[in-house]
Amino acid sequence: MHKVLPYSVLLLVTLGFYDTVYGQGGGIGSGGTDGRVNVINTAVPFLRISPDARSGAMGDAGIALSPDPNAVYWDLAKLPFAQTDGGASLTYTPWLTDIVNDVFLTYLSGYKQLDENQAIGASLRYIDYGNIQFTDMYGVDQGTFHPREFSFDGGYARKLSDNFSMGIALRYIYSNLAAGTNIGGVTFKPGQAVAGDVTAFYTNSIDYNNGQSGAWNFGLAITNVGTKISYSNSAQFKNFIPTNLGLGGSYTQQFDEYNKLTFDLDVNKLLVPTPDTGMVDANGNPAYLDQSVVSGIFHSFTDAPGGFKEEMQEINFALGMEYWYNDLFAIRAGYFNENKYKGDRKFFTLGLGLKYNVFGLNFSYLIPSGSGVQRNPLSNTLRFSLIVNFGKSNQD
Counting beta carbons within 10 angstroms of the beta carbon of residue 251, is it exposed (0 to 12), middle (13 to 18) or buried (19 or more)? Predict the structure, then answer.
């Protein structure tokens, strides 16, 4: 029974019952949030969960990291610069383990370089929410359901110069949270959407006079630009998916043959409308939900009720560090920060990496934070990734 409340709340938020949520808070309209929480809700938020253990150990930073098979998620444009001409990765993540024990995310990705300038990549992401017991408003059992979501994508990347590349990807999204169930007279169906990514990557190596070397990487990723999604034929509005703008930068210092240190920073902002319940449409729903996808993207930079200050609050930061010894053993650490009015996710991460021959094994751990009702529900999150590299580098 303890699963009913958390998952009911999760289901309501994911399905977009904004009037219920806002009604309890009195609404947030033009002129500012007045210190109130104003989280941007989207459907299929699993698309923004960091899927791999390497970046998971670095505070969820990964846009400008050196390329590996998980670049399909972070920045597809990195793949032509990968050190091997093919590879695959499999990640398993038990999710929300401080709350439940049967939710998990799996991620499978891979790529193949076509030649020294081109690469293709694909990935499959699947999240399973376990069994959920539905009850009506009086607590009467309405049966159980097994929600699950997945996405599949494929993309192409190409070098446009010796240092710069771009990539594009197309994604199919399927979300089955309560199909066939009836809640409040509404029969739900699976939600489906199609989205795309546009990414860019720049890298530049530096040789110093003391025998050391360094490398700067910069990445841009505009992801999940796609159709809205709904979960019933009678829905008065459709929900935005988590379109996102990500910028990343990293610097790697190669001290000698054995020691290498990388610092990585990601900055992210959702490109969807900010909640503003001060304006409603003819059906009584928040008017911002009626915007088109393109309109929502452009207005996302100027539509916050709290003005420029609130727009800046919508930017989150991820900072990571990675140390490699002899390309065999890695130690990683990171920090993620999100404004307290926009979700309040703040956590430190740690992780290890091992590499042997063509195999790599990565592990990450999200350090517990907070206590009682303030305890971070992501505390103790573990990620395990296995990487297999194929062939030799096209740059050799």
Answer: middle
